[in-house]
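Subject: complex prediction, re-run

Hi both,

The earlier run crashed halfway through, so I resubmitted it with identical inputs.
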Amino acid sequence: MAKHLQRELDKLKKTILTLGAMVEERVRMAVQAVENRDEALAQRVVQADHDIDVMEVEVEEECLKLLALYQPVAVDLRFIVAVIKINNELESIADQAVNIAERVITIARRPPFDQAVFDFSRMAEKAQAMLKKSLDALVNLDVDLAFKVMLLDDEVDELRNEAYDRIKQVMAANPDRLGLLINMLLISRHLERLADYTTNIAEEVIYLIEGEIVRHGEIC
Amino acid sequence: MNIRNQSTTIMAPESEVLYKMQAKDLSFFYNGSQALHTIHLAFLPRQVVALIGPSGCGKSTFLRCLNRMNDLIPNTRATGELLLDGRNIYSPQVDVVNLRSRIGMVFQKPNPFPKSIFENVAYGLRVKGIKDKGRIVERVEKTLQQAALWEEVKDRLHDSALGLSGGQQQRLCIARALAVEPEVLLMDEPCSALDPIATQKIEELIHELKDQYTIIIVTHNMQQAARVSAMTAFFYMGRLIEVEETDTLFTRPRLKQTEDYITGRFG
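This time it finished cleanly. Structure:
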């Protein structure tokens, strides 16, 4: 029975990593759409979300099946529980990519702003790096890398605050462009939420490896 | 933590009194071959402890040491100490019959006597010298109720016990063990010959009984150990490898060896 379970767990790992790769791609597309005001690319992100939703349901059903059939314990149990949660987080990250894409669509339909408001590239790079690191931590069961992701979250929060201050300033000077600026503010909010979800993935990886729940700031 | 692997934990001597039973440096030999190696394990009163491990790991041998059932096997020898309420049960002054009435045992296969249901439970009382019929009747009823069997057998107490189903027979054996009011109940894979429904009844019964008795159960069924016990001890090749609170042992065992066993990656 252990061999069967091991085979199923290997399969589950591959599936969750495939989902991870799909979500990474959606985020990359959404970020690129922001940088290039690319409405067509943003539309593709919105339309492709259905695939992620379908896969999320498949992963969850697979996990429930394994729990019912094998009643796993110890590391196997922790792995399946971690996958159930990481699966949710990945789906939420994909939703944030969709949210960003929707903002891009709105922005792209408005006249461009004649001055630089906020450069999202640094924030986007960090959020993407967090997502990549959290998935690498899962693949390699690397607890140190998972902890690094949690620390990076503070940097993204800092950039979100910078975006808020800057956009507020531009709003005060340009009250006629509030619609566009609110959409830009929302992009920073979505990137920050996206980073939060990657932190949750990292926390699940730590639980998987160490058996300790580190949510709600219970690290250190 | 209530029960400790003393090789990793230092305990104050006065705390020993708290334990219902305690093995200290217990080793056991069959014909000179060592089956148990210096086991340190202690049991708190009114707690269920599960002993797990692969076949031949010594868990049943250890269980049978706890009421000196191994005395019945020739050419065996135990060294070290096994304390019941702080007194060594292997000391020469101990009356083994009396000891076994304090430490009852239920076996893998239900083994009722080929007598009536009533007589199965009354037997131990008579051996104990109780002659008062009224008292025996009262005690039989009470014990059958305790073993969650009364409702099913109250109208046929004088039918043969061998006519009961496997699950009922096993509960009858539990009632027989409980009749003499033991303090400790040893169970050697009590559900391995039972179907899932009978198993569930025995597990519920264990849950009820733990308020009154110290229960030590050997099981090959990992989920059962996880369900019924507060503490789990993992044995391997005659040694106690790890003892932990059951919740912890089944979610994050301390040792790789334990994890390999409970996740089925053994060998």
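The CA atoms of residues 26 and 130 of chain A lie 15 Å apart.

- K.
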